[in-house]
Amino acid sequence: MIRSTKHLLKEYEAFKETALAGRYINTTHISIPLEKASSNFDVEIVGESTLGEPIHLIKVGTGKIKILMWSQMHGNESTTTKAVFDVLNVFSENSQDATINNILSSCAIYIVPMLNPDGAKAYTRTNANGVDLNRDAKELNQIESRILRKLFDEFQPDFCFNLHDQRTIFSAGENPFPATLSFLTPSEDIERSVTPGREESMKVIGAIYRELSEQLPNCIGRYDDGYNANCTGDTFQNLGVPTILFEAGHANGDYAREKTREYVFYAILSGLNAIATRSYKEIASSVYFEIPENEKLFYDLILRNAEVQGKIVDIAIQFKETLKGNKINFLGTVENIAPKLAFFAHREINCDFQEVTLPDLKPLFENVIVDKILVKNEVLVINYDKY
Fold first, then answer.
1. Are residues 112 and 176 in the same domain?
2. How far is CA 261 from CA 11, 12, 325, in A?
3. Structural domain contains residue 336
4. pLDDT (tens digit, 9 = 90+) per residue, 351-376?
5. CA–CA distance from 133 to each of 153, 163, 164, 261 (Å)?
6. Where is 162: in which H helix or E strand?
7. Which residues, including other chains, have CB under 8 Å from residue 20's CB and lie 6 or more apart?
8. CA 287 to CA 201: how far, in whole Å?
């Protein structure tokens, strides 16, 4: 009898790819993991980016069920890339495990670990031409989009895993819990019809949700399924291939996305196992709709009961990510100043009705970037490492 993937999560540290860490992951960083993967799997270059960076494809498994997955379509969304290489380590180092062996013998998996290497190097959502590749599925104006579509057409997958990151603003429903993981079966039409392909992917997501809920209670969300013909997932789903969107979100204190990386690792393996064993077919599609829909209810920091220019207000601060050298800096930006903000925060500070100002005693305003503020006449450093 094939086991679930739960036992593998307990062994995660043994499979974690140590060459990859943090938020900034580009082609230089994945060169060592790619070389390691090439000793066990077929690794090839399937094209070059706009600026001539190689785009790699890793072929895993010998089975009949074909699965295509791609990561870092958006260059600044690197968590799933780290998790993909963790999964590859499991495949190469633990292939005799019954669960892994069954995945590898039942499935043929094509993995593009970094579709947008130029965006990854610049740490931007878009490619070198400033185009969001996930809005280019219809026109296929960009070379990276054409490479992915060519793979899709030639491989003719039975399932697609579309791997992304999402911002820290998302909650799992109208609850004070961050959406650490979110999933979506993209729509095929404006009516969001539940077609056979969507139902298949709903069941796979339902299987993942059932398996991960114990490890990640209240922190799994369902992404909005509004139809967009320009999006890759919507396009592939419309072509009849069950497509699953993975969104790596925020875990408490995890701005480096290392804890979330573990959960993505588990989610990918869980989905592959559900497909390989066909156990997802036993899941009712209604389970998908049990997952709370994402809401934009979080700020990174809220200062409660602060006095600003004589008024008692809450101050909401959101971190903006910027690349400086080879390091991602998180700049605190005041996004909202209002009485009793009806939002949650990854950290809250009660100012006890004391005056809050900038260090030079000037008042706070919305849209100002802050790294330090004065609270109760004490300096508070706005630094994501503390959260």
1. yes
2. 14, 10, 24
3. yes
4. 999 999 998 888 899 999 998 888 87
5. 17, 13, 12, 23
6. strand 159-165
7. 29, 30, 33, 81, 82, 85
8. 12
Dihedral angle sign, alpha carbons of residues 76, 82, 85, 91: negative
- What ranges in 175-289 are assigned the alpha helix state H? 196-212, 232-238, 258-277
Those residues whose C-beta lies under 8 Å from the C-beta of residue 191, and which sit 6 or more positions away, are none
132 and 247 together in one domain: yes
Same-domain status, 24 and 148: yes
Verify that 63 and 186 share a domain, yes or no. Answer: yes
pLDDT tens profile 51-107: 999 999 999 999 999 999 999 999 999 999 999 999 999 999 998 899 999 999 999
pLDDT of 235-256, one tens digit each?
999 999 999 999 999 999 999 9
Is residue 166 within 8 Å of 248, Cβ to Cβ?
A: yes
**Is the same domain home to 91 and 191?**
yes
DSSP three-state, residue 293 = strand
- Residue with token string 């050298």: 325
Q: What is the pLDDT of residues 153-198, one digit of tens each?
A: 999 999 999 999 999 999 999 999 999 999 999 999 999 999 999 9
Edge-first strand order for the sheet with 327-338 is 344-350, 298-308, 311-324, 327-338, 369-370
Within a domain: residue 109?
yes
Q: Are residues 284 and 327 in the same domain?
A: no
Query: Residue 156 burial by CB count (10 A; 0-12/13-18/19+): exposed, middle or buried?
Result: exposed
Residue type, 182: S
Identify whether the C-beta of residue 249 lies closer than 8 Å to the C-beta of residue 181: yes
Based on the fold, state whether residues 259 and 336 are members of the same structural domain.
Answer: no
| Domain of 136, in residue numbers | 6-296
Boundary (domain end) residue, out of 263, 296, 329: 296
Nearest residue to 322 via CA among 128, 123, 165, 131: 123
- How many domains does the chain divide into? 2
Closest Cα to residue 70, out of 253, 314, 277, 246? Answer: 246
Same domain, 233 and 330: no
Q: Look-up: residue for tokens 């860490």?
A: 21
CA distance to 36, 144, 187, 309, per residue, from 63 (Å): 22, 27, 28, 66
**Does residue 1 lie within any of the structural domains?**
no
CATH code of the domain in which 337 resides = 2.30.40.10
